[in-house]
Design a protein that fits this description.
The complex is a heterodimer of chains A (350) and B (483). Chain A has 350 residues and is of the alpha/beta class. Chain A is built from 12 helices and 16 strands. Helix content of chain A is 41%, strand content 22%. Chain B folds into 2 domains: 261 residues, Thiamin diphosphate (ThDP)-binding fold, Pyr/PP domains (Rossmann fold); 183 residues, Pyruvate-ferredoxin oxidoreductase, PFOR, domain III (Pyruvate-ferredoxin Oxidoreductase, domain 3, 3-Layer(aba) Sandwich). Helix content of chain B is 36%, strand content 16%. In chain B, helix 9 links the parallel strand 5 and strand 6. The chains are: A alpha/beta (350), B alpha/beta (483). Chains A and B meet through strand 1, helix 1, helix 3, helix 4 and helix 7 of A and strand 2, helix 4, helix 6, helix 12 and helix 13 of B. Strand 9 of chain A pairs antiparallel with strand 9 of chain B.
Chain lengths: 350, 483
């Protein structure tokens, strides 16, 4: 097994190349720029395309073009850049084009700052652009997962023909950890029935326009069926000390790393705290969250580096069965173990 | 023989679909264009050229937003329907993905010159191997007659009801003139469809441009002045006269640039997928057996470190080296920099964690050891240290005493020792050596064995000096402080 100490941002490019990604179209933005830099270093070595586009808008439209040709293709950015990409992401969703978008979230709104936040949750998990669509969203919590989940994003994106996000943040993107490098993927799905290759047998149409109202409604129903199928098949979570937990902290990505430490601290004090970490944000782990009240859980605390975006989905999953709580930091601040532990003590009297 | 067939047979060229299968409704053999519209003429010129150049099967067309949004109804080619103005961006990627294909970006004036203004300039500037057909009819057709970037001064549209006033609405954009100023484009021309002679010139321009793309000569751009009687509020038959009366002065016809003869051919790489090549490119190296762990004091079995100092003091590389060593000893490690503007001067700091078991937060919010390379770092980070932790500071540059009396203090003249060794830059490795001595995590001999890996590509001399620096830092701590 080959192992390397590397940044999360670099690990996502390793994952992309190992998954057979053939083209990278991007635009620099802190704290995601190392992804474009790594792509510019490694893609040409393997005859693959790297292009620094004129804008985020153009970059994502280029992704749309390459995806329509059947290539595994990606882009990466951070909040303000993701906002700009939303146009073409909607088109890709409407035309059922597989592609991977890495979002290394920074502080917002507006120019905000370059510190880590999780405030792109709504614009990434809920569709973001115009129209009735969803994207698959994977949320890595380590550099290893930046590699592994980028690979998985390509696989699932192809399987279901939709854009897939790797939703991360400034901490996971910038930090270094040891990454064990998997074997390169050597088998790729056949896209010949829909991809456009400039040959007599690939005169296909990549399209999201349906003038007839009934036709467009039917197309939308098809998309919704697909999203339901994804929700049935692809939910992924990590549970930590959840089996006997009386209190559960829910969080993803960077926040979940802190929660894990908090669980250890709480257990040392005799507090039965457990962690539930969604690895997929769409599909959302609705069932397991809905089951928590029936498992004797007395308190649920959602921890985010945002203003309460994930907690909305937690409460939808709980469906009023029990009240849940929220603790969030913003502006580039990562919640500390002690402040979360204090919040738990204060909320639940433990 | 072929030319005879062309003369005698009136038929749809093979570039068109025989049945417009993508067109909804019952009428599968009529276009959606208005009477007197120029799109149909230009479509036919393109379709004929595709057949005559034998590139129908190789062609991929962009259907933009505008009246030509339904280009894909008509042509027997591959198709992309694209977002407003983005055709050149999409065409870029399609051409890169299929370098042997002929990629056509067919765009109107609002699409190309307004919302997609940057996309067309940048694709032209990159010299993408695509052909752009730019339909200039001085108005928005599909959306119902609003002002276009090419709308003429004084021209009434639904959004310039009093006529376009250049003082508030600007002047018509002359796109061919703009594109022709760029270095990369190969062929830039403006033609018109207002009479037979000019339509023949357009026909020749269409062919030349498509030939260029087929032959991989790069970026070709054909602007075509085109009738839109519906939105000009004229009779279909009066469309050509409208062009003569209103457009020819503002948009002079002619070839603006032609370097076809000297154009270098576009060459694109072929993706490599075999496993060995991928691993080689990514520098796969099988991991060595983990080093034998030392007997580490309880405190540092869960090391939480902050390294801090001026930019340029090797703060980040000290942290990375320590994380790397931790990894080689089989620990879980993390390294987190202060990133962004701080990296580009001023103070820099990073967090390193070295421990068994999973690492939660990667930021060392309560470090049990700090390495302070300058005074602001000492002042900032001693405050957040754990009681009983180790405070290693650079006594060459720091002449104050730490205020904490509940931590163990290690003043080490790090910069001075590096200077004595002959290069200030090795101060980073002096602190690595001192760290190893304080924490007991690493054997300096093993660190030296790993040096070639840490300093891959560096000359032997540099490696040797860094080895000395590590030993110097290590020995200084061993000699001056009790364990």
């Amino acid at each position: 097994m080959a192992r390397k100490l590397m940044k999360g941002n670099h690990a996502s490019i390793y994952g992309a190349l190992l998954a057979g990604c053939e083209a990278y179209y991007g635009y620099p933005i802190t704290p995601a720029s190392e992804i474009a830099e790594a792509a510019s270093t490694y893609f040409p070595k393997l005859g693959r395309t790297f292009l620094q586009a004129e804008s985020e808008v153009a970059a994502m439209n280029m992704v749309y073009g390459a995806a329509g040709c059947g290539l595994r293709v990606m882009t990466a950015s951070s909040g303000p850049g993701i906002s700009l990409k939303q146009e073409a992401i909607s088109y890709a969703a409407g035309a059922e084009l597989p592609c991977v978008i890495v979002d290394i979230v920074r502080g917002g709104p507006g120019l905000g700052n370059i510190g880590p936040e999780q405030s792109d949750y709504n614009q990434v998990v809920k569709g973001g652009g115009h129209g009735n669509y969803r994207c698959l969203v994977l949320a890595p919590a380590s550099c290893q997962e930046m590699c592994d989940l980028t690979m998985l994003a390509f696989e699932l994106s192809d399987r279901y023909r939709l854009p897939a996000y790797v939703l991360s943040d400034g901490v996971i993107g910038q930090m270094m950890e040891a990454v064990e490098l998997p074997e390169p993927v050597m088998e790729f799905p056949d896209k010949s029935d829909w991809a456009v290759k400039g040959t007599s047998d690939s005169k296909n149409l990549i399209n999201s326009i349906y003038l007839d109202h009934d036709e467009l409604e039917e197309w939308n129903r098809h998309l919704q069926d697909k999203y339901r199928e994804i929700a049935r098949n692809e939910v992924r979570v990590e549970e930590y000390m959840l089996e006997d937990a009386e209190y559960v902290a829910i969080g993803y990505g960077c926040a979940s790393r802190v929660i894990r430490s908090v669980v250890d601290l709480a257990r040392a004090k005799g507090i039965k705290l457990g962690m539930l970490r969604p690895i997929t944000l769409f599909p959302f782990p609705t069932k397991v969250i809905a089951s928590l009240p029936d498992r004797g859980v007395k308190g649920i605390l959602t921890v985010e580096m945002s203003n309460g975006q994930l907690v909305d989905d937690v409460n939808l999953a709980l469906c009023g069965k029990m009240k849940s709580d929220f603790y969030g930091r913003m502006g580039g601040n990562v919640p500390s173990e002690m402040e979360i532990l204090e919040k738990i003590s204060q909320l639940y009297g433990v | 023989m072929i030319s005879m067939a062309r003369k005698t047979v009136l038929r749809e060229p093979d570039g068109f679909l025989k049945v417009y299968k993508h067109k909804p409704g019952a009428e599968k053999n009529r276009t959606h264009y208005c009477p007197g519209c120029g799109h149909g003429i230009l479509h036919k010129l393109i379709a004929e050229a595709l057949e005559d150049l034998d590139i129908v099967d190789d062609t991929i067309m962009m259907s933009p937003v505008g009246c030509s949004v339904f280009v894909y109804y008509y042509f027997d080619t591959g198709h992309f329907q694209v977002a407003h103005g983005r055709a050149p961006a999409v065409a870029t990627a399609v051409s890169r993905a299929n370098p042997d294909s002929v990629v056509i970006s067919y765009q109107g004036d609002g699409d190309l010159a307004a919302i997609g203004g940057n996309n067309i300039l940048q694709a032209a500037n990159r010299g993408e191997n695509i052909v752009v057909f730019f339909v200039n009819n001085a108005i928005y057709g599909m959306t119902g007659g609003q002002m276009a970037p090419t709308t003429l001064p004084g021209q009434k549209t639904t959004t310039t009801p009093y006529g376009r006033d250049p003082k508030t609405d600007g002047y018509p954009i002359k796109v061919s003139e703009l594109i022709s100023q760029l270095t990369a484009p190969v062929y830039v021309t403006r033609t018109s469809l207002h009479d037979a002679a000019n339509t023949r010139k357009t026909r020749a321009a269409v062919r030349k441009a498509l030939q260029n793309t087929r032959d991989k000569k790069g970026f070709s751009f054909v602007e075509v002045l085109c009738m839109c009687p519906t939105q000009w509020k004229t009779k279909p038959i009066d469309g050509p006269q409208w062009i003569i009366d209103n457009m020819l002065d503002v948009f002079p016809l002619g070839v603006y640039k032609d370097i076809t003869e000297d154009a270098p051919l576009t060459v694109r790489p072929t993706p490599v997928h075999d496993s060995d090549s991928v691993k080689k490119a990514l520098d796969y190296k099988e991991s060595k057996a983990e080093l034998t762990r030392l007997d580490v004091p309880e405190l540092f079995r869960k090391t939480s470190l902050r390294v801090s100092g001026f930019g340029g003091q090797g703060i980040m590389s000290t942290g990375i080296a320590l994380a790397h060593l931790g990894m080689e000893y089989g620990y879980n490690v993390s390294w987190l920099p202060s990133y962004g503007p701080e990296m580009r001067g001023g103070t820099a700091n990073c967090s390193v964690k070295i421990q068994d078991g999973s690492i939660g937060a990667s930021e060392a919010t309560e470090p049990n050891i700090i390495i302070a390379m300058n005074q602001p770092s000492l002042e900032k980070f001693e405050k957040i240290m754990q009681t009983g932790g180790a405070l290693l500071y650079n006594s060459t540059l720091i002449d104050i005493e730490p205020s904490r009396d509940d931590v163990k203090v290690y003043p080490v003249p790090i910069t001075g020792m590096a200077d004595e060794l002959g290069d200030t830059r090795v101060q980073s490795m002096v602190s690595v050596g001192a760290f190893a001595a304080i924490t007991g995590l690493f054997d300096p001999a093993e660190i030296n064995r790993l040096m070639p890996g840490l300093f891959a590509g560096k000359p032997e001399k540099v490696i040797k000096m860094n080895e000395k620096a590590i030993m110097a830092g290590y020995n200084y701590v061993k000699e001056h402080f009790s364990s």
